[in-house]
Design brief:
Order of helices and strands: HEEHEEEEHE
CATH class: Mainly Beta
Number of domains: 1
Radius of gyration: 14 Å
Helix content: 10-25%
CATH architecture: Sandwich
Number of helices: 3
CATH superfamily: Protein of unknown function DUF192
Largest sheet: 7 strands, mixed
Shape: globular
Oligomer: single chain
CATH topology: Jelly Rolls
Length: 138
Amino acid sequence: MNNKQNKLLDSLNISRDDVLETGYLIHNENIVDVHIICLKFFDQKFSNITRNEKFEEQIGFRITNAKAFNTFLFTDAVDVVVCDKNNKVIATYSSMPVQKATSYYKNGWYIYVFAKKMIKFLNLGTNDYLTIGNYKYI
């Protein structure tokens, strides 16, 4: 990981061992100034995401091999985006309140968690595409 990635993880108090990769969000082939942190293991997903009491607009999390998501341990509403294996958005949840769960998506593969109101800010919708760009190419 480069210096920028290390500083980001340090600021969020996330261990490098818990992270699969980090990069910039790419929305329909357009680079967006949002850092995405992909977490490796299921148990780290919730502890790393929920301990950040207030989400920053420039940071999001991606969970792989996920069919649904819940906000049971969260302290604030978040935006949730469900994508299939081809990175196509199949569902969005704007300002999803705490203590709620998404529907189950049989074709779901990636779940992105953003600060609330980011779906509207980024103009995300179903049939859009979300991927992650490597820092070295930006």
